Amino acid sequence: MPQPDYGLAVYPGTFDPLTNGHTDLIARASRMYRRIIVAIAESPHKKPSFGLGDRIGLARQVLEEEGLDNVDVVGFNNLLAHFVEEHDAGVILRGLRAVSDFEYEFQLASMNRHLIEDVETVFLTPAEQYSFISSSLVKEIARLQGDVSRFVHPRVSEALRERYA
C-alpha cells in the first residue's frame, strides 16, 4: 500500500438514518481534514430500514445542503480496512457519544490497527445537544409516529415519515 494520506479521513457507518449528530461530526471534521469520505456500509445483517442507495442519496442531499464541499459520500460492502486501503486514506474517523461507546470503538480501532498499521483512528464527540441521538432511537420514534424533526435533517425526517407511514 502506498503511504496513506493523513489529510483524507474515512467516516464509516450504516447511517440508517443520518442524524444531526452525524452531520455535526462531519462538519467539524471537514474543518480538520482536506477531504472526508462518508463511507456508508451496506450492512445487510443489520437489516437497515433504508436501502444503501437511499441512504447514500439522503446523505448526499443533506451534506450538500450543509455546503460541505470537501465531503464525498460513497457506499461500500467490503471490509472497512480494504475500503480505506483502496482510497489511500490515513484516518478512520469515529464518533463517541458516551463512555459506553468507548469499549466497542476501542476494540474496532485495535483490530483496524492490526489490519492496516499505518492508518490512525481518530475519535470525535458530537456537540452536547446531539450526544444522546442515535439512529436506532430515531427509527424507533419514527416507527411509532413520533416527531423526529429535532434529531434529523428535514429531508431525513420526511423520508422516515414516508417509510413508516
From TrEMBL:
InterPro entries: Cyt_trans-like, PPAT, Rossmann-like_a/b/a_fold. It is found in: Cytoplasm. SUPFAM superfamilies: Nucleotidylyl transferase. CDD domains: PPAT. Residues 10-140 form the Cytidyltransferase-like domain. It comes from the Bacteria. Its cofactor is Mg(2+). GO terms for cellular component: cytoplasm. The record marks H22 as: Transition state stabilizer. Coiled coil: none annotated. GO terms for molecular function: ATP binding; pantetheine-phosphate adenylyltransferase activity. Substrate binds at T14, K46, L80, R94. Its main location: cytoplasm. ATP binds at T14, F15, H22, G95, L96, R97, E105, Y130, S131, F132, I133, S134, S135, S136. Its EC number is 2.7.7.3. It catalyses: (R)-4'-phosphopantetheine + ATP + H(+) = 3'-dephospho-CoA + diphosphate. Pathway: Cofactor biosynthesis; coenzyme A biosynthesis; CoA from (R)-pantothenate: step 4/5. Reversibly transfers an adenylyl group from ATP to 4'-phosphopantetheine, yielding dephospho-CoA (dPCoA) and pyrophosphate. Belongs to the bacterial CoaD family. This is Phosphopantetheine adenylyltransferase. It comes from Wenzhouxiangella sediminis.
